[in-house]
Amino acid sequence: MAALLILAAISYFFGSQTNTSKPVKQAQKQQQNDYAAENDTPIAKAPQPQSASATQAALSMNYDSKMYEDKIGQNKHAPVDYYMLALSWSPAFCDSQRHKNQGDVPQRLAYQCAGSQNFGWVIHGLWPQNAKARSVDDHPRYCQGDLPEVSAKIIEQYLPESPGAALLQGEWEKHGSCAFDSAESYFAKQKELFYSLKLPAKNLRKNDLFQWMRKHNPQLRGVYLGASKTELYVCYDKKWQPMDCPK
């Protein structure tokens, strides 16, 4: 009987040690994964222009954005306190769109997602933000109202980084118009910020992505980033210095 009690005590002791050390092992494994992600993931190449036919098709469609069709609508009174650069991992975004549309992609996304297009990280948009916003409709939107189409000549210049005429037009009207005097200055700024960042050449889990970004972008060390399933968010103050994104 005494021997059984001793064996039970030993079993309990080692079982407890195993359970206690499990989070440690998980943390060690996570560190190994992070280390591998940092060292094995190459830096993404710059986006390349697509074929002339794909570009022409993107510019030939009606890409205007209509404010009255937007579910959130206008908010021209919200102050601009900081900016959020939203970058999208295109393969994951396109997969999500195919899943929603039974394997197809909407025409407005054909330039980005159809055929042999091969985008990696792309610019979703540069969003002027209100620091006191409690919901998305508290941020500045459509500050200059419903605007005319930006010329195809200007749109074409920015398609390699923002792959969609409707995307560029919509982001300018919804967001850019709240902080910039012209579409071209807005597009140029988000492109400048995009190329100031080194980005990984593959999709990473959120924590791995944050660690990779901070390692390869010294200006982001100590800065809190944001992410969703397919996007990375980098925030800037009004002097265009990286800052913590709201948690």
UniProtKB/TrEMBL annotation:
Region (Disordered): 32-51
Molecular-function GO terms, alphabetical: ribonuclease T2 activity; RNA binding
BP-aspect Gene Ontology terms: RNA catabolic process
Ranges of biased composition (kind: Low complexity): 42-51
Highest taxon in the source lineage: Bacteria
Protein family per UniProt: Belongs to the RNase T2 family.
Protein name: Probable ribonuclease
